[in-house]
Amino acid sequence: MDLAAAELVIADWIDAQGDERDQLLPLLHHLQREIGYIDDAAIPFIAAAFNLSRADVHGVLTFYHDFRRKPAGRHIVKLCRAESCQARGGAAIEAAASRRLGVAMGETRRDGQISLEPVYCLGLCAIGPNALVDGRPVARIDAAMLDTIAAEVAV
Amino acid sequence: MTRVFISRDMASVALGADAVARAFADAGCEVVRTGSRGLFNVEPLVEVESAEGRIGYGPVTAGDVTAILGGSHPNRIGDVGALPFFAAQQRFTFARCGIVDPLSLADYAAHGGWTGLDIARLAEPQAVVDTVKASGLRGRGGAGFPTGIKWQTVLDAPGGPKYIVCNADEGDSGTFADRMLMEGDPFCLIEGMAIAAHAVRAGHGYIYIRSEYAFAVETMRKAIELSAARIAPFTLEVRVGAGAYVCGEETALLDSIEGKRGQVRAKPPLPALSGLFGRPTVINNVLSLAAVPFILSAGAEAYADVGFGRSRGTMPVQLAGNVKNGGLFEVGFGITLGELVNDVGGGTASGRPVRAVQVGGPLGAYFPPSMFDLPFDYEAFTQAGGLIGHAGITVFDDSVDMAHMARFAMEFCAAESCGKCTPCRIGSTRGVEIMDRIIAARIPEPAPPTARTGTLEKALYSRSPDRIEVSPGAQTALLRDLCDTMKYGSLCALGGFTPYPVLSALDHFPEDFGAPAPIAQAAE
Ligand SMILES: Cc1cc2nc3c(=O)[nH]c(=O)nc-3n(C[C@H](O)[C@H](O)[C@H](O)COP(=O)(O)O)c2cc1C
Ligand code: SF4
Ligand code: FES
Asked: Which intervals hold domain NADH-ubiquinone oxidoreductase 51kDa subunit iron-sulphur binding (chain B) (predicted)?
């Protein structure tokens, strides 16, 4: 990670939003949006900015599933694994997606092209199986749709 | 210029509404993006304004524009509100959703918006609290606690500043009502929060929205900006979650807003007395707060007149999973589970028989069709060994493996446990292991070589895996024991209610756990 860039993002955020502790989650979201992930090396800067211990920041960072501590793939497919999507064939689609995209659930493909991540419900539960492809919601995923998604994230 | 209405709801967009909207704009139409009406098998839905009212067509694609504008499209619905799915509803909370432009203050005012707030602000806070009490409104987030009583505690609490927190974490699978309301009628939630603020003398509020709901976050933020002058001096802001299911639990949510790990707090103190930043705090679900404008404008009786037993008013029920007419169905309490699943829902989408429904999300029980005469009512569901929760109903057809669903419930609890107490943090992992053994053992296998016979007895608990008694009967006994510990030894409902889906699956579908089928079902 470009530590200098991260430091700048952190400093700008504190300037604009203040250093009250309740800004910690908004900052982590912002940092991940800007840099892509949150490197452990950034923890001391965040801790200093909020006057918290490093352990405290580490504890928060690792508690929430959303925060990434390693770079993700260039494309991110978040596939729903929750009950309503399972009721509509989600498990089979998960296995097929893993094969079609060439990456195991929860992993980033070795060439860094795709991350396949689990998500537990997107609130689209009557039209599953569902996914977010780079943030765009897709519903009623079947084999043909997987081909479309695969073509989209291959580039 | 022809005006057409097309939903911008996340579900509609997932089904292709954006492309349809673009095609109509290209054809020279004025496109108004609304929320979703809530019936997904007619989406993407387009409604064309005409002298006879809005004429609906759905489902449609971008290629259908000419046929629709010419009036010849085969999927012509006509008046969407006249469809049986909508005609049978009582829409108090969702009256505007799918009809208005969610971010038009003019639309909101023209459809009865702000009346409740104006009435509230002319009254004393105590009178507003009394009205909410008289309506019988109970918390729609799951626990069903009377909203008026919660507000009374905050109104009476000494000290300030006081806060209004809206729980929009909606993590339960099978639920999407909070999302639909925030995307389709955000001012309704804002008005409800402003009324709550007046009722308890709070100055600032937070809406905590799960990060998976990017559309709702954007719509709410815009709506707050647009209505800031209307709700002043009350102020509001959105906070975004970070993918932790347990942050839907109210005290974990407060810790999360404060910038901490989302761990559950021990009660007391009640959040009503010592909540956000240690201050008196109203924390309510989206649907609880969004019901309040109707209660204030139409009166407490109008709300309380509808319902069943101690469950008053309407519930926005969400039909999800393998169901034909999936969507949002707002109706008075008392309708039976069978009416919802079979009559309204139309049975499964796959056309196969319904085998099980899970009500109330990942912590809710599984019910077989033999229990479909259960009325939708908090007390009735509790008595039947389940819960209404946030009123999501997930339908499964006969291809479901209930042992896998029980395993999933344990797996989900293990993934989402906040880690504060042992029965939940460790018990859920042990539960996954037990379910794995049951699933492995129920498939009859040739007897293993009996090398150790005669040396040591098999046991329920052992550090050496080959000594564990793995018969389904023994493991089921162990599972019940574990569920008992989780149920009575957990601090919050994540660990405490995970036994509901697990034990209901075991009780109603023992054949999936390697035991004989219950007589009644086997005889069918
Ligand atoms: C694990 C867990 C998750 C919960 N998730 C939610 C949720 O997503 N939304 C919600 O409104 N309530 C949720 N609740 C219930 C809240 O703790 C709380 O009862 C509710 O927000 C109170 O608001 P109400 O009285 O309006 O229902 C959850 C509870 C638990 C134990
Ligand atoms: S039951 Fe689970 S989620 Fe709830 S407080 Fe205990 S460890 Fe946390
Ligand atoms: S369960 Fe997959 S979107 Fe809700």
From this structure: 403-448
Instruction: Give pTM, 2 decimals.
Output: 0.96
pLDDT digits (tens, 9 = 90+) for B52-101: 999 999 999 999 999 999 999 999 999 999 999 999 999 999 999 999 99
- Decide: B492 in ligand 2 pocket, CB within 6 A: yes
- From B363, B397, B431, the end of a domain falls on B397
Are B210 and B170 in contact by the 8 Å Cβ rule? The answer is yes
Alpha helices in B318-471 (DSSP H): 337-338, 378-383, 402-416, 422-425, 427-441
B94 domain residue, yes or no = no
Exposed, middle or buried: residue B340 (CB in 10 Å: 0-12, 13-18, 19+)?
buried
Which CATH superfamily is A75-153 part of?
A: Glutaredoxin (3.40.30.10)
State whether A64 and B262 contact (CB < 8 Å): yes
* Pocket flag, ligand 3, residue A79 (CB < 6 Å): no
Walking along chain B (524 residues) 10 residues at a time, the average pLDDT comes out as 96 98 98 98 97 96 96 95 97 98 98 98 98 98 96 96 98 98 98 98 98 98 98 98 98 98 96 97 98 98 96 97 98 97 97 98 97 97 96 98 98 97 97 96 63 62 78 93 97 97 97 82 44
Ligand at minimal distance from the CA of B420 is 2
Scanning the structure block, which residue is given the tokens 């659930």?
A: A105
Element (H, E) at B237: strand B235-240
Say which residues have a Cβ less than 8 Å from residue B232's Cβ, sequence separation at least 6: none
